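User: Design a sequence. Structure:
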């Protein structure tokens, strides 16, 4: 776990690039480069791109926080080539900023993101009460290969028996700088929504990826509502209301142990059965 964790943290250390790329758009205000996770397959994990989008936005606007991020994935990225992130500022005010970030490799654009930034303001804080179950016992740990930290659940996304399209996942990272919490949370939201959408389909589960079905995330959005820590327990509570037409859709909330809603997310993905 330690190696995977340190590998992920290294991917979040984006390098500022001083010279513009040949033929780059003159509107690009800042560019960064990030390394990739050392995984056993050649395609980049979308969660890595989400996390690096968050980091690129934060580095370009140190006085603001990411409010929302909406990403599209037009083509798969390669893991053997660093990713370049070009940031274009569309608007910058006292409390809000709007950015476009393009992720590129030599073959072209692999992902794009529209990002809204915000400076946290004082004001009323009202939320509908949410009932939060206790964190499952250590015996309920689940192994999710791309999440190198403590994850627990009472459900099993690898079970082939049909079940409601819902999934609650508790997670807690090792101690980490709070500045990285939004990026790490965005990373985690990309992993289990397709598996959640598959739960009602008898005889199939997420472990059948690449054999019984093919899948690929086409778009992913994350909204951050409040400051959060990734090294405190967080509950990812998600639901998939639709699987149809070769696609699936899912959404979720990120809550703290006391029920505070700190983030929300939604995802659409290709889901094509091979049989």
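Assistant: Done.
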């Amino acid at each position: 776990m330690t190696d995977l964790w340190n590998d992920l943290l290294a991917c979040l250390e984006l390098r500022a690039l001083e010279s513009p790329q040949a033929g780059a758009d003159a509107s690009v205000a800042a560019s960064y480069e990030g390394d990739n996770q050392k995984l056993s397959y050649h395609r980049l994990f979308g969660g890595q791109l989400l996390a690096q989008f968050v980091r690129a936005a934060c580095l370009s606007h140190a006085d603001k926080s990411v409010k929302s991020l909406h990403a599209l994935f037009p083509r798969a990225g390669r893991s053997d080539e660093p990713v370049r992130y070009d940031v274009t500022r569309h608007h910058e005010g006292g409390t809000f900023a709007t950015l476009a970030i393009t992720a590129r490799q030599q073959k072209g654009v692999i992902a794009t993101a529209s990002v809204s930034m915000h400076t946290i303001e004082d004001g009323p804080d009202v939320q509908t009460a949410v009932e939060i179950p206790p964190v499952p016992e250590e015996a309920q740990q689940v192994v999710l290969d791309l999440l190198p930290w403590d994850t627990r659940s009472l459900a099993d996304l690898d079970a082939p028996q049909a079940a409601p399209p819902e999934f609650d996942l508790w997670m807690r990272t090792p101690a980490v700088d709070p500045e990285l919490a939004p990026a790490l949370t965005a990373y985690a939201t990309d992993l289990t929504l397709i598996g959640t959408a598959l739960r009602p389909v008898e005889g199939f589960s997420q472990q059948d990826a690449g054999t019984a079905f093919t899948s690929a995330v086409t778009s992913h959005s994350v909204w951050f509502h409040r400051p959060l820590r990734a090294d405190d327990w967080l509950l990812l509570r998600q639901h998939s209301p639709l699987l149809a037409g070769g696609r699936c859709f899912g959404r979720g909330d990120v809550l703290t142990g006391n029920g505070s809603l700190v983030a929300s997310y939604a995802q659409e993905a290709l889901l094509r059965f091979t049989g």
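The helical segments are 2-11, 46-60, 181-188, 193-198. The two ends are 36 Å apart (CA to CA).
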